[in-house]
Amino acid sequence: MKGTVYTGFHGIEELLKKKKTDGVLYYSKISKRNALILELAKKQGYRTLKVSDLEITKIVEESAHRGIVFVSSPEAGINEKKKSGNGGKSSENLETYLKNLKSENALVVILDGVTDPHNLGAIIRSADQFYADMILLPSRNSAKDNTTVSKTSAGADNYVNINVVTNISRAMEQLKKAGFWIYGADMSGNSIAKTNLTGRVVLVMGSEGKGLRELTRTKCDNLISIPANGHVDSLNVSVAAGIMLYEIRRQQDFS
């Protein structure tokens, strides 16, 4: 079966609410949650089809599932990709975003080599909670916005503006010219609690193992860290991103 497969309850729910793609909702079980999804799908005009557990297993390619899955039509996926550069969502690219930018408390997140889709999904979820304007991903050495990411983000990837760029350094220069200050997350950096994070901010998170690349590090205006006294070396990148996004918005008094 071709088309993008969505399995998480929240991911399917948000996708149906936004009506960003055509497709079919397949189900084999009528649980309380699945009934709510079915009702929403019918309300939004989507086709629903009852199938066996075995057929659901073949679609999602795993035996553990919740008896419901949404499959976007291949034609819809192709049309959507022509409209945008982030794998199917209609959203502003970096140039258009900067051209239309008016907010003095804008917030952009750059992920410099985050390769685990679960980490990417968790960061997207935090970005949605703290109103990040955009997430930029490099075209190479990065997790992509896929089914696992959508499921982990609980559908937040339907709301966050996610763009893939070929050159992170060039994107950082563009953001600087638009009045952004760029802060790289690094264990050797200044305490985030003692750093002024008001104004237009770019938060750069490095890869799970090596952190920021040296070239990316040199492009940052400042390096910041989270004060901690734990027994392990550092926080998971997605946890650290959530804490830092909260602190940025707290300082900006963004509510």
Count of folded domains: 2
CATH superfamily of the largest domain: SPOUT methyltransferase, trefoil knot domain
In the CATH hierarchy, what is the class of the largest domain? Alpha Beta
* SS element count, helices: 10
Second-tier CATH architecture of the largest domain: 3-Layer(aba) Sandwich
CATH fold title of the largest domain:
Alpha/beta knot
- Mean pLDDT, to the nearest integer, reads 84
Q: Please give the order of strands in the largest beta sheet.
A: 7-6-5-9-8-10
Structural class: alpha/beta
Shape: elongated
Order of helices and strands: EHEHEHEHHEHEHEHEEHEH
Rounded to the nearest angstrom, the radius of gyration is 20 Å
Largest sheet report? 6 strands, parallel
Question: What tags apply to this protein structure?
Answer:
elongated; Alpha/beta knot; 10 strands; alpha/beta; 255 residues; 4-stranded mixed beta sheet; 60s Ribosomal Protein L30, Chain: A; 6-stranded parallel beta sheet; 2 domains
